[in-house]
Amino acid sequence: MPAKDEYIAAIDIGTTKVVTIIGRMNKKNLLEIKGYGISDCRGIKKGIVIDIGEATKSILNSVEAAEKNTKMFIDSAYIGVTGKHISVVNNWSEITVNSPNKIIRKSDLDRLLANANKLNLTSQHEILHTLIKQFVVDDEKGITDPVGLATEKLAVELLVIYGSSTLIKNTVNSIRSANVQIEDIILEALASGEAVLTPEEKESGVIMLDIGGGTTDVAVYKDKKMIFTYCLPVGGDLISNDISIGLNIPFAKAEEIKRKFANVDYNFYESLNRVNMSDIKIDRNKATLNIRLYSIVNSRVKELLKLIKEKIESYGFMYSVPCGVVLTGGVSQMKGITNMAASVFNLPVRIGVPNEVDGPSEVAANPIHATGVGLLKYASQLQDYALDRTEDKKSNGSLLSRFREFIYKILKN
Ligand SMILES: Nc1ncnc2c1ncn2[C@@H]1O[C@H](COP(=O)(O)OP(=O)(O)OP(=O)(O)O)[C@@H](O)[C@H]1O
Ligand SMILES: [Mg+2]
Does residue 234 contact residue 307 with C-beta atoms inside 8 Å? Predict the structure, then answer.
């Protein structure tokens, strides 16, 4: 865990953009964003590296932009990962406390957690996080800190999050090729949840949906803990793609129209009549185009929300989330999505932007930066017992890294 006031960097490698953010947790426990760099992302699809060279270039561009913006040199960073290869499993571990007076010591916890980490995963998988759901001391459940309690038997219930070793390795290699050392790898859903949810929501029960360009990261929280996560390999790109096909226009134009004019609620089109599609070369009247655009975005967004709801329902979490749904990520900006999500989930819905963050508002108050800001927040609060992975850290500096250091010195002077 980084020291208070120490600057750290995070890199969010999204489907549409790579963002590098530098910040620090100050002594008042407020995250201060010093600066950031953003670049278009190529070589990543649905959270997965599909072209290491392109991904590395995008990462390098965003890192260098952040260095220029902050006049700081980035040596290492916390990295986000996601993708449909991520899975979760509940795990349980139990030990006999063998101190003479049966008082639980920190060393007992270490033994318990080391035991729990021996989950039988194949070599194709690797653990990203082992999160503590609760300790159980002599059948007493819901214990958060058992050190100092007296017992014969100490048990822990854990949520183990793991993913494909090769796919994680590809992300690691892209970062290393950009000559950035890896401090830790953090699940993007955990990061976004950390950024946008309030402590009350996490305690009472809430669903967080970070809907990005290529993925939807789902996290369910209850009793202050993340109890479930899932990545659906679908996001806003699919909507733009359908608009592009449906209106016979290039993807970039479809993307622009979607952001400016699309609304999942048809009443909005009719009353405001804002859609200006003069750029569209095909001969269709405005009313027809309105209906087409509306029906594409309405059906796509509804389909996406229903898919997520079915998944959460299948795990039985729909009835343990009184605080409803918090939407974040770029697609949370889609006009009308809050009402649609409220009717699909039959729960209260709000848009989540990073909270308790000081810094430029285009980052600190923007849902597209939930993951990047959350990586910094999560990293700043890593628990002693988190058992997060420690390998894959610290690659050696190379010529390129020295070159970047040189540039940094120039910037500084
Ligand atoms: N105002 C808007 N209305 C509708 N969609 C929007 C709006 N602004 C952004 N989006 C969509 O949000 C998506 C990008 O979101 P975000 O930046 O969170 O994704 P990402 O982090 O790059 O990708 P991912 O997290 O899926 O890997 C794009 O599909 C974009 O079209
Ligand atoms: Mg994202």
Answer: yes
C-beta of 16 in contact with ligand 1 (< 6 A) = yes
Place of tokens 């409803």: 324
107-132 confidence digits (pLDDT tens): 888 888 887 766 777 779 988 988 88
Pocket probe mutation, ligand 1, options 11, 12, 15, 82, max atoms within 8 Å of Cβ = 15
* Residue located via tokens 């109890």: 227
Distance from C-alpha of 21 to C-alpha of 42, rounded to nearest angstrom: 19
Question: Closest Cα to residue 183, out of 68, 33, 22, 49?
Answer: 22
Rounded Cα distance between 104 and 107, Å, is: 8
- Domain boundaries, given as residue ranges, for the chain: 87-164, 199-354
Whether ligand 1 lies within 6 angstroms of the CB of 178 is answered as no
CATH dotted code for 87-164: 3.30.1490.110
Alpha helices, H only, 30-92: 52-70
- pTM assigned to the model: 0.90
Ligand 1 atom with minimal separation from the 368 CA: 18
Residues with Cβ within 8 Å of residue 107, at least 6 apart in sequence: none
Confirm if 210 and 14 have CB atoms less than 8 A apart.
Answer: no
Q: Domain 199-354 classified CATH 3.40.50.300?
A: no
Burial of 13 (0-12, 13-18, 19+ CB in 10 A): buried
Q: Which ligand is nearest to the CA of 236?
A: 1
Contact 77, 172 (CB under 8 A): no
Ligand 1 pocket, mutate which of 232, 234, 243, 258 (most atoms under 8 A from CB): 258
Give the nearest ligand 1 atom to 237 CA. 29
- 165: its two tokens: 């070793």
Task: For 156-165, write each residue's pLDDT tens digit.
Answer: 998 989 999 9
- The DSSP result for 208-240, as a single string, is EEEE-SS-EEEEEEETTEEEEEEEES--HHHHH
Best CA proximity match to 65, nearest among 74, 56, 53 = 74
Q: Would you call 199 helix, strand, or coil by DSSP?
A: helix
Residue-level pLDDT at 387: 43
Question: Side-chain half-sphere of 105: how many Cα atoms within 13 Å?
Answer: 7
Cα(248) to centroid of ligand 1, in Å?
21
Please identify which residue in the block is written with the tokens 């290492």. Answer: 76
Phi, psi of 62 (to 5 degrees): -75, -35
CB of 213 closer than 6 angstroms to any ligand 1 atom: yes
